[in-house]
Batch of 2 targets.
Target 1
Amino acid sequence: MATFAPTPRTTVRRKPTRGVYDRETVFAILDEALICHVGFNDAEGRPVVIPTGYGRKGERLYLHGSAASRMLRSVAEGIPVCIEVTIIDGMVLARSTFHHSMNYRSVVIFGTAVPVTEEAEKFEALRIITEHLVPGRWADARVPAPQEMKGTAVLYVDLEEVSAKIRTGGPIDDDEDMDLPVWAGVVPIRLVADTPIADDKLRVAAQVPDYATHYKR
Amino acid sequence: MATFAPTPRTTVRRKPTRGVYDRETVFAILDEALICHVGFNDAEGRPVVIPTGYGRKGERLYLHGSAASRMLRSVAEGIPVCIEVTIIDGMVLARSTFHHSMNYRSVVIFGTAVPVTEEAEKFEALRIITEHLVPGRWADARVPAPQEMKGTAVLYVDLEEVSAKIRTGGPIDDDEDMDLPVWAGVVPIRLVADTPIADDKLRVAAQVPDYATHYKR
């Protein structure tokens, strides 16, 4: 199916025209963003949010690192999560403070984070996560050794209950404010990568790879 | 006190040397980042994470917008939240995939989000949030009218249980990997603002303000 079926939790209620449910748009946002923000409950049922890297393969999102280890501390068989990803595209300066806004593309996922236990899938998940963060890197770097695989927690979340929310364009002011002597418009915002900095412990005469020199999201 | 007292929840356990508790560092991260990620439980106790703008005044963080309205739907007298803010500074390319990382500065806040009801504080909170997003803007734009104030939900969270986590510098590879023929280093990442785009409905001959032309975080 080309779109995610909206559920009570994923139906965008505030500014519903900004809600987007088609897979292509959702996947494009997930693939462009760098990190996600994983919400879950601790053992006492209190909310916790942790930023972490991730990667997507088809309808499955993979997480690892500190989020995984903290979540796995308490639960081994799956834990309810809300995963949020946001890209900021601009600051929207309206004539009134009330209509100030941001241009953004965000995705919210409700699901269950489950540990990846099968060795081959775990290896593939680490490839997916590495390639998400630095496309092209997996082919160059040393792949995980068996003991490193053991020391890495990887979780997956199936993408089923998902929606995106997008704002684009200029400010929307009230008619009676249109003649105020105030500049209005958008300040575009984006992530850029600067010239790569070689590790000062680099012993080999390795060239800076293209994917580092031309890194972009 | 110059530092936040670590609690069981804010003590950085994974990579504890990256934990930072001094107010100056925490406040600098909060003041530089654009948005925060607010985690709370819905009426069924399930985790929800919402991105939103915010602003800080002293030891108090103010939130408004969709997070506030969604949270206020269910609870009027305060709701436990976890607020996370993250700035990505670089992609860390190690010789082994296992040691790949990011340079980042993040803050996690545990607290209670409480509606701001006093009119003067609410007005000031809106100023703080606007000035956080676009410093200098409040003096130019039309300030909130009484009916706009009514239509805006604002919450505050007192900064008491707070910690930061910071990673800087190059990759840390294992000794036995140091001679691998692989480039290693950091790709620096930052947010930039491009040339402001005037609203095409701009009727007045207003100059682009300096804070828009030279917008930066």
Target 2
Amino acid sequence: MSFFLDVILVDDARKVITGIAPAMPTENVPLAHSQNRILAEDTVPATDIPGFSRSVVDGYALLSSDTVGASESMPAMLTSRGRIQMGEEPDTAIQAGECIYVPTGGMLPEGADAVAMIEYCEVVGDEILVQRALAPGENWISRGEDFSTGDVLIPQGTKLSSRHCGVLAANGVADVTVSRQPIVGIISTGNELITIDKKPVAAQVRDANTYLCAGFVTDQGGIPRPYGIVRDDRDALHDALKTAVAECDIVLVSGGSSKDDRDMCADTVAGMGEVLVHGVAIAPGKPTIIGRAGKVPIIGLPGHPASAYVVLIALVADLLHRATGERAEQRTRTVVLAENVPSARGREDYIRMALEPDGARPLFGKSGLLNTLIRSQGLLRVPAEREGYETGDDVEVIVW
Amino acid sequence: MSFFLDVILVDDARKVITGIAPAMPTENVPLAHSQNRILAEDTVPATDIPGFSRSVVDGYALLSSDTVGASESMPAMLTSRGRIQMGEEPDTAIQAGECIYVPTGGMLPEGADAVAMIEYCEVVGDEILVQRALAPGENWISRGEDFSTGDVLIPQGTKLSSRHCGVLAANGVADVTVSRQPIVGIISTGNELITIDKKPVAAQVRDANTYLCAGFVTDQGGIPRPYGIVRDDRDALHDALKTAVAECDIVLVSGGSSKDDRDMCADTVAGMGEVLVHGVAIAPGKPTIIGRAGKVPIIGLPGHPASAYVVLIALVADLLHRATGERAEQRTRTVVLAENVPSARGREDYIRMALEPDGARPLFGKSGLLNTLIRSQGLLRVPAEREGYETGDDVEVIVW
């Protein structure tokens, strides 16, 4: 076998990885548990919102034609017909020369076409002096003006925020149809690995990838299922993968930082199904494996956490979004470069960037440094066809 | 009582609200449950990372002085001393003229000061031909180069991301000291309100604020505890507040959209403790109440969800961050305005903005529209001393 991987471009790898994404079935969850879940169908309002013409101020409902020319020195004088109560239907209509008090959110009585704010009214016995002229439609919203039954309220694929949950509540959506969260198995391989509660001896290192991957999966709406550390042993890896494939929708295997171990991982995946990609033109992350066993994608990630994280962001996020149907946009920010960013043509570089007041700086230094994960605020993608960027260039940074 | 509130500026309201924030005690949680929690103390590495000099490539550890002038046509010839295994300490040192295979992540043997990548080496029997000259220190990282015991690893007040969790794992932090999550009581008031599973009749509306506030509290790291709908009745509100104050760290009361109900809410809070602020120069959100009963802050929010959300973002977020010790920065984005944004001097306007390809547009229209919550991507704050912004201005938008 060659030293060199048969690498493909990131865009092609993305097509492969999204092409094998398992489509999650839908499930209904109570609205109170729907936050951050992915809406599985367009939500259409069952009724108009508001369901009635509604004042948006505290004031007097009236006919705007009664206020023509009204001012502080020459107020319009109207007869008060009492008050409308919150939540109740007015039992009276308004005629010319009359008005009725309506609180914010109260229903507009028939006949009225405007509401004068109390700040511009004066009460004199049973008469109300209105000190401003009002236009028809002023200070109230009509039935269906906010949402009407023809609209798509929230489209399929939306990740539900607190604001969406509020709007769904207003529309009476007590149960929400969302995509089931994919269960993502996480396996860390490597003879050098120990669990985090142990003290390393000799050349041992603690297993960071289990926690990094679990956190990433949680962020992306999946449910992480860690299987712990597996030694660099064909049978051990095969058994762990077999269990994970049976129990999960997607499996992530990190490790195999050396060529031999990577090859063993690829061979093991091939023995259980197929390897579609072994090698992506991405730095860091070149030895990435994309394979599957039956319908379960198995993704081989670099062993070093800082490299693994770049592949999670650049490729695995797309796999999870496709599985849940999330219409996700990468959160990017346009920044000016405070330093040159050189890059090799023909490979997509993902450079960790520190966003500083005078601009964005690349965190180069040696690969294999974990601290770049927390010193950086995002990733700069340098496309394969570019040789980098120069100081002063405006670039889009994928913000963590 | 006057129609007009005794309003104070937003910055002053922020000082009041953060001044009464309850300081959450700390607790230890397993690393696997620490994501999105707030770190309660500076974390300092217990050991150096890496704990040994470590190769960052697959290759041959050697003395760089043996490779001076080496090239493809004139390779350096070194004697192979075998392989170093992952996780194990080399039992041999390297001398001039020798090299040893080391996988990525393996420990560098004594004597070696560089690692030649296998891509630039050729194996000829027991000899290795190295086709590149190497500098001392090339392709390995030294003990403590990533994190050393003197550093602050992650500072107090950090909201732990998946990347932080990975770095904590690498440092052997199996239990993390975080701030306890504040329990935030949520009360919705209003005679017009019905639960979301009911169909509104007459001028009834469904209770959206319970879900909006609960989602916001979850986003900000608190634990929402909803108490449901309370009618606009002094005794009912008093009883609900009393229960919530006894069970929660912070209480949010929304509603009182009309002046009378707002006054009743303020009076009820005053009867249980004190009202510190009634009226903030913010639009929307002017009738905001800041009070407390004993050590429990009680925040009165506008009844309309779209207005309540602005107050949550502009003020209540600060209260929660102060309670948990989170060093939070509002996530803002610099955008160019595609439309003028007028604003009244003397009051801080928070305008919902749609971020479109040609720039940011204000979503004005009438107040009282919920749809702006989901049509907008963020808020533009217009400071009290400005009269607005003009088309073409660069502005900072607080992104949802």
